[in-house]
Design goal:
With 783 residues, the chain is mainly beta. It is 5% helix and 55% strand. The longest helix has 13 residues, at 284-296. The radius of gyration is 26 Å and the shape is globular.
Length: 783
């Protein structure tokens, strides 16, 4: 496969930039029409996307991307990003031990700290209404126009800089019609969802409103046989309202506000393995006894015995405002400002036993959260079209800061309790970016269809952390003891309360670029290639300060992470008789440098863990997508991603050095694919439209362990998930009612979504599992 990719790259006929500004772009996103059911993405058979901040056919975008319409999200019962990865072969999702807080991986690039004060950052950034968002939970999927998954480095056109990609969640915008819908869903585990949306043109063409609410509840599918609690339930509500104002032809203002609230029982953590053979692990026998108890009781993965009072509370609120001004000539000024607050209170039983070995108990101060973050973003962008030349240039700024007290407590290995009385995490990013596109056909007819592009970005990042953390050896308590003078600080090392405050700060900077071209061979064939550099910020290890180090200590500051990507691809549309279709293919090679990984840090005689630039890697792959449509009655869609990721050098600075170069990439399956088909029955209009559909998503064997792949359960075995659905739209030609029946995970496949690997450190391996088979029905009334 490596040679085939190399040949593909060498024989590419031109260099292209994935995010090129094309003179073929049609309209700006604010001019695109949305619809209550998301079908507005289909215009004349084309799929309309805004990946380059203009609305255009997906087939004209020189980029590897996947777009899922709002109608498709509803028809596939997609409510979370875990569901989304079943439709996007290049996307892998890690839920950690909270189903409402996920991280994304695209092309083997993932992770990074989500803690602003420590630096780093995610390789894949989610956006909502064109503004970066800190949250990535289920509330994002309500009343969407589409979701667009962009593969590869982003940043020379908009928003934050990324190395892996971006995910654009586009909400359905107000339309110029009085319309809306109500929908109810009932299903397995007493699932009951209710949602409704109303769209009102307050003043035709001038002032448009859209608002809605979604309420989701479901019993948990993991049961505690002792406490009788049910974990992995669903209990959430999302509210959304948006307003578009066009007081003048040259001015549009769009505002959308959202509030998401969930109060759930948290995950049912399952104990998988116990290390009873290592005498240095004092808790190994106790964990082994807990595992034997599970076996003696015949417990499967849907039954547990836990001691922590698990919970998963989330509250996120945001408001995004986009103002567009048509200036003189062909210039347009766009300003996007957003403000959001992200609050979580997550408590869980990491060890999966009835013992207080590793219990994360979340916040304990009444009214507080263990994470409470404010995020402000500002983007100002100027675009212009001057004959063969078109430009986009602007600046970006974001700031994160504490929204309140951030308290947290843990019970550690039955020997101690920690007490974080507060943490202040602050981050700031500033960037300047610009991109130019040249339509060579407007310069000379001989080059018609050829577009050249170039873009550049420079980013400055600052981060600061302040934390108050105590430790109580020999105490197992929730809530933790109230701090009093003389209590031991966990950091700084050797200090006592009230001198438990630790603070540190740092900064890094770096650039991104993109160069290339795309060529429209015919109206139905586009070829492209590009060369890009992506940047992820560096950061700090404040623990070194707590152990007596300084900002000049080796390892305090780690460098940015970068990737250079070479990519070529082709996008085609074809027709033969009454059969039509698309086929898109992309090949790429990533050179990944200064990868941020967990490394040992040394201060005097003390060794601790932190983040360092430990590795280089090569990631190469192929992404394929296509569909075949037999008239209006039958269609097949499929996608495939091949990812070959390996480290070129990964050596930890231990004595002697530890060589991990052969370690697999985490959450990076080599092969994954999805296929779906739908059949519309040839019935009279008086009956309505009945559509039968099925989908299957398969993911190859995936490494999810730490730095020792020989530990048990460090891999998730390959698995596939099968779903089916019957949609009866426009029931009996009434024009307003749709009825649906659906099933997910039809084969009731048991599969893990992650693992917490403490087998060699503490003595256990635990995991949470994906949803079992689910059935349900939905009734939807439109007006």
């Amino acid at each position: 496969m490596s040679n085939r990719i190399t040949v593909l790259l060498v024989t590419g006929s031109c260099l292209a930039m994935t995010t090129a500004v094309s003179a073929r772009a049609q309209t700006t996103p604010d001019q695109a029409t949305s619809a209550a059911d998301g079908d507005a993405d289909q215009q004349g058979g084309d799929i309309i996307v805004t990946a380059r901040r203009v609305s255009e056919s997906q087939q004209n975008v020189p980029m590897s991307l996947t777009e899922v319409t709002g109608a498709e999200l509803r028809e596939r019962d997609v409510n979370t990003v875990t569901d989304l990865q079943k439709l996007v072969p290049s996307l892998t999702v890690n839920t950690g031990l909270s189903r409402n807080n996920t991280s994304f991986a695209i092309r083997g690039q993932r992770g990074g700290s989500m803690t602003a004060g420590l630096g780093g950052g995610p390789s894949v950034v989610p956006y909502f209404a064109e503004a970066p968002v800190y949250a990535s939970g289920p509330g994002l999927f309500f009343d969407l126009q589409n979701v667009q998954v962009l593969n590869g480095p982003q940043g020379t056109l908009f928003g934050q800089n990324t190395t892996g990609g971006a995910i654009l969640f586009e909400p359905a915008r107000p339309t110029n019609k009085v319309e809306g819908y109500m929908m109810g869903t009932y299903g397995s585990y007493s699932r009951l969802d209710v949602e409704g949306v109303v769209n009102i043109p307050i003043i035709a063409d001038k002032l448009l409103f859209r608002g809605g609410i979604q309420r989701q509840t479901r019993d948990g599918f993991t049961h505690d046989v002792v406490s009788k609690r049910d974990y992995d339930n669903r209990d959430s509500t999302v509210y959304r309202a948006s307003l578009t104002a066009r007081p003048f032809d040259w001015l549009e203002n769009y505002t959308v506000g959202s509030l998401y609230v969930s109060n759930e029982q948290g995950p049912g953590v399952v104990l998988l393995a116990a290390n009873t053979s290592n005498p240095a692990l004092l808790l190994g026998p106790a964990i082994g006894a807990a595992l034997n108890t599970r076996r003696a009781l015949g417990l499967d993965v849907r039954h547990v015995i836990l001691d922590a009072q698990t919970r998963d509370r989330v509250r996120t609120s945001s408001i995004v405002n986009r103002t567009t001004i048509d200036l003189a000539g062909n210039l347009k000024l766009t300003n996007i400002v957003s403000y959001g607050r992200y609050q979580t209170d997550s408590a869980r039983d990491d060890d999966g036993t009835p013992l207080p070995i590793q219990n994360s108990n979340g916040s304990y101060i009444p009214g507080s959260w263990n994470v409470d973050i404010l995020q402000f973003t500002e983007e100002l962008r100027l675009t212009g079209d001057f004959g063969p030349l078109n430009i986009q240039t602007g600046g970006y700024y974001d700031r994160t800061s504490p929204g309140g007290i951030n308290s947290y407590t843990q019970e550690l290995q039955t020997v101690a309790t920690t007490n974080q009385t507060n943490a202040e995490l602050r981050g700031k990013s500033r960037a300047l970016f610009g991109q130019v596109g040249f339509d060579m056909g407007k310069i000379t007819p001989a080059l018609r269809g050829l577009n050249l592009t170039a873009g550049y970005r420079y980013t400055w990042n600052d981060f600061a952390v302040g934390i108050d953390l105590l430790v109580y050896p020999g105490v197992i308590s929730f809530p933790p003891p109230t701090p009093k003078p003389g209590d031991l600080c966990q950091l700084p090392f050797g200090a006592v309360y009230p001198n438990c405050h630790l603070s540190a700060a740092g900064s890094t900077s770096g650039d991104s670029f993109a160069f290339g071209a795309d060529y429209k061979v015919t109206d139905k064939v586009l070829v492209f290639a590009n060369y890009k550099k992506g940047y992820k910020p560096g950061g700090i290890n404040p623990i070194l300060i707590g152990l007596g180090g300084t900002v000049n200590s080796i390892g305090f500051l780690f460098k940015p992470e970068t990737v250079k990507t070479t990519e070529v691809g082709i996008k085609t549309e074809w027709a033969a008789g009454g059969v039509r279709g698309h086929f898109n293919a992309t090949g790429y090679i990533n050179k990944y440098n200064d990868i941020q990984a967990n490394v040992p840090l040394l201060i005097g005689a003390l060794t601790t863990g932190g983040t360092g630039n430990a590795a280089k890697a090569t990631i190469q792959g192929v992404e394929l997508e296509g569909d075949v449509r037999f008239g209006r009655l039958f269609a097949i869609n499929a996608g495939y991603a091949y990812t070959d990721a390996h480290y070129d050098r990964y050596v930890l600075p231990t004595t002697p050095p530890t060589d991990l170069t052969s370690l697999p990439f985490v959450y990076t399956p080599k092969n994954q694919f999805n296929v779906s088909a739908n059949l519309t029955l040839p019935l009279p209009e008086s009956v309505g439209e009945i559509k039968l559909s099925g989908n299957y998503a398969w993911k190859g064997r995936t490494y999810v362990g730490d730095t020792d792949p020989t530990q048990p359960f460090s891999y998730i075995d390959a698995y596939g998930l099968l779903g089916a659905r019957i949609d009866w739209n426009n029931v009996l030609d009434n024009g307003h009612v749709d009825l649906s029946f659906f099933a997910t995970n039809l084969t009731n496949k048991t599969y893990r979504t992650n693992v917490i690997q403490q087998y060699n450190a503490t003595g256990y391996s635990t995991a949470i599992f994906g949803e079992p088979r689910m059935y349900g029905m939905s009734l939807r009334a439109r007006f």
